[in-house]
Amino acid sequence: MALERDVEPDVENKPDPGQALDLASRLTQDHHQSLKLWLRMLSCTVKIENEIRSRLRATFGITLPRFDLMAQLERYPDGLRMGELSKRMMVTGGNITGITDQLEQEGLVVRVPDPRDGRAYSVKLTQEGRKAFAIMAETHEAWVAELLAPIAHDDKAQLINLLSQMKRHLNEGTNR
Amino acid sequence: MALERDVEPDVENKPDPGQALDLASRLTQDHHQSLKLWLRMLSCTVKIENEIRSRLRATFGITLPRFDLMAQLERYPDGLRMGELSKRMMVTGGNITGITDQLEQEGLVVRVPDPRDGRAYSVKLTQEGRKAFAIMAETHEAWVAELLAPIAHDDKAQLINLLSQMKRHLNEGTNR
Q1: Which of A158, B2, B53, B164 could form a Cys-Cys staple with A71, CB 3.0–4.6 A?
Q2: ipTM for this model
Q3: In Å, how far is B176's CA from the nearest CA of chain A?
Q4: Which residue segments constitute the domains of chain A, with CATH numbers given?
């Protein structure tokens, strides 16, 4: 993780000691290329995430984990168990039980008995919660569009394409 | 942020109501494309981050914020003030003062008077801390290379290129 902001070690452009690279050098170069890609991706993600975090706070007075939690529930109208919800969160560091309690008090989510297991329960958005989220989601989408506006349509399409490929590989490699 | 995992609303491929798109439809499509790109990027980042988080714990018994903090210090041999350090962290949710205290107790970092301001102090890695980090960083780099190994060299180069462009735009747009 980590490591880059605006100053950044130039990990890829090491001097090339000879014409033909031996295997070890090639491996090192591949490692550096992957690290560079990862740091670049992480850096962009953190920047966008921080911007959205602060706009959510300023505009709606809510935290990013709260938005994330509602976003996950919005996709599962039948509700999610706490464990499923926690696995689906895209933002770390939020206290899921605490956020759920708070949203329940505000009437934005309800806990309902899990149809698959009477002793467990699921959390789902109320109609009011769905309405509240829809408003925020629209604004959120406009922010993302604004932040990514300087990138050409074709470049975005290419990024989506390459990142979809990456996602597929990551799912194959890390799903257990 | 949020919203996507393996199931994902197909935000971009909405039916096209006519041959010629009016401005509103084009705007909507642009928004959807940007959102899709953002969710795709976030999803890949979270996947890699989670994998690295669990490997750091299993292999070195350390947290991701601790690794991140040492990574930031490694790039500033003269040390960083707490405020600077906090701004540079790529991972949210870590207690920076707590991590620093712990690392100091283990002899991996020291607090030194800030040369620019006698009342403030900077944190820097000790020689031992630098050595400990170098070992972890090498393993970390190999993990990243392994996770991104299925992506072709040219595709990685293209991603680096496009993400560098994105990073530049984000810096221009959000730096204050």
Answers
A1: B2
A2: 0.83
A3: 12
A4: 23-174 (1.10.10.10)
